[in-house]
Amino acid sequence: xxxxxxxxxxxxxxxxxxxxxxxxxxxxxxxxxxxxxxxxxxxxxxxxxxxxxxxxxxxxxxxxxxxxxxxxxxxxxxxxxxxxxxxxxxxxxxxxxxxxxxxxxxxxxxxxxxxxxxxxxxxxxxxxxxxxxxxxxxxxxxxxxxxxxxxxxxxxxxxxxxxxxxxxxxxxxxxxxxxxxxxxxxxxxxxxxxxxxxxxxxxxxxxxxxxxxxxxxxxxxxxxxxxxxxxxxxxxxxxxxxxxxxxxxxxxxxxxxxxxxxxxxxxxxxxxxxxxxxxxxxxxxxxxxxxxxxxxxxxxxxxxxxxxxxxxxxxxxxx
Length: 319
Known about the structure:
Blueprint: H1 2-21, H2 24-28, H3 34-37, H4 45-64, H5 68-79, H6 84-108, H7 114-137, H8 140-160, H9 174-178, E1 182-187, E2 192-197, H10 201-218, H11 223-233, H12 238-262, H13 268-289, H14 294-317
Helix pairs in contact: 1-6, 1-13, 4-5, 4-13, 4-14, 5-6, 5-14, 6-12, 6-13, 7-10, 7-12, 8-14, 10-11, 10-12, 11-12
């Protein structure tokens, strides 16, 4: 499983490198490129710093149970001299890489549900394209303010969110029954076979319109919002929600990432070290997850996000 993930990562990196280098957008990246903002530093300085920072970020992403894109965009945009458009484009690819590495395994284990993912992905991916166009059209300071408010909202959501391992769904609604969104999986921790179904499907699908727009606009991915909607609102079991959310990112983030790529906002000088760092950090974070105290890690992640959110808000307001 680990070997397949490594092959997936290097395959993705090779694909991205060839796609970006042959894209007409690459020739247009001159004014705001990292080479410009690097100043007196050698060309390798900022990619190396990105590699180190994203490596640490990848560890905390696993330990804190959040997607890499949620940490990447606010922290890199707040503390690195990169234009926000480049950061958002790279953030989408960071979230996409993690989803592509994990997706096949989650489908094999029957945790990610295709019946649940397909209607959600259709809505969210379409809206992510709209969100990416909106984000690139708006002034940077407006996007920074909205990003700061969103990140602070994510912190509040992480503090207050409950975890329902097996939500009580008395009866499936008509829409989910018509779409046949239900399933069965084996809970390995107890050995029980769980039959699950969902309800409040129309409201959940409407919320994914907003989630898709925000994912494309800010380059955050949408795992932070997918799981609460699937689990707490629609009633899917927690493991099904987490796995399906991870699989969804491979579809929704791809749609928005192409918009940023077409506009010249995705360059290998940022993408390659960021993806390598996040993935290597994730491999280190998995074994650490067994011994780390989740409560402490969770609060560290919340503190990091809150600080980055306030930083983004202050930059947008000009403080």
